[in-house]
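Q: Okay, next protein. This is Bifunctional oligoribonuclease/PAP phosphatase NrnA from Halorubrum ejinorense. I've checked the sequence twice, so it should be correct. Can you predict the 3D structure?
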Amino acid sequence: MSRSQELRSMLRESSEINIVCHNNPDPDCLASALALGRIAATAGIDERHIFYSGDISHQQNRAFVNLLNVDLKPFDTAEVEDRPPGSLLAFVDHSIPGRNNTVPPDTPVDIVIDHHPAEDIDARFVDHREELGAAATILTEYVRALEVDLDSDLATALLFAIRSDTLDFLRGATTVEYEAAGYLHDHGDPELLRKLSSPSVSGGTIDAISTAIDNRRTNGAVLISHVGRTTERDSLPQAVDYLVRLEGVKTAIVFGLVKESIQISARSPDPRVHVGEVLNNAFGDVGSGGGHHDVAGGEIPLGLFADYVTDDGQLLDIIEQVITTRLVAELNLSAEADGSELT
């Protein structure tokens, strides 16, 4: 039995599916959730729910939800704690309860479909392919194998997700992504794809990127910066995507204060640096961090910082020193950067 057939068999034995997106879901996660919901519908499941935690703040993510009319609901722990018999819990584009989601740790999970590096994944059905560039690639394979009706909205969602997660096939794309995109292209809506690809940018995002540019410090081929406090969480990956293009920079890391946590985003086309491992090693004891060798993210609760410092300026100074010191140590950098100390 193929994995797609195995999945459909499990779905046919169930009456409800709760698909949980990771915190602040991106197009890959959202499109994968849509596709899994569509597959569940063809298997006879009428009760289908897509949940998320955090915020949908990135302009592309907001456009995705609005233009495709994605029915999302804020996640509540009661959704997984009080599930009736026959109800399934599914993760797409992430895999571990409590990591990049607000599902309580040790919660039993039924379905995991993911492509991010992870260990100790525990679920009844697992399709975990780190070698692929997008979770949407896996869901496209299922849709095709199971002959699910592929309307233009779903095709466009999956195609945009693959393009987005691979930076238009420049990052982590495999022949499987190209094959999936070729299949989806014939069913997609070019005008909708154009709208998804070029949404307007908020002033808060521009301000955060500008702050990151002003605060940048380089040490050899490594750039570290911060956006200060921002309500635009997704300005961090946008800032780091911009700064890693700076001449001479091979690794860029940007952090910032978002609500009650420190968010971190990292990029590194340098094959000698695995930024997922860098963030995990540097901050795994105080928060979470990880990802691919070239793309990674992390989150640290403010905790004691917020308890003892109420002024944002002082708080940011302390956080900048602590974050930078850990990164300098993990990356084996010297203490000097463009004439200014990083530590």
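A: Here is a summary of the prediction. Residues 336 and 342 are 6 Å apart (CA to CA). Confidence is low (pLDDT under 50) at residues 337-343.
Q: Noted. On to the next one.
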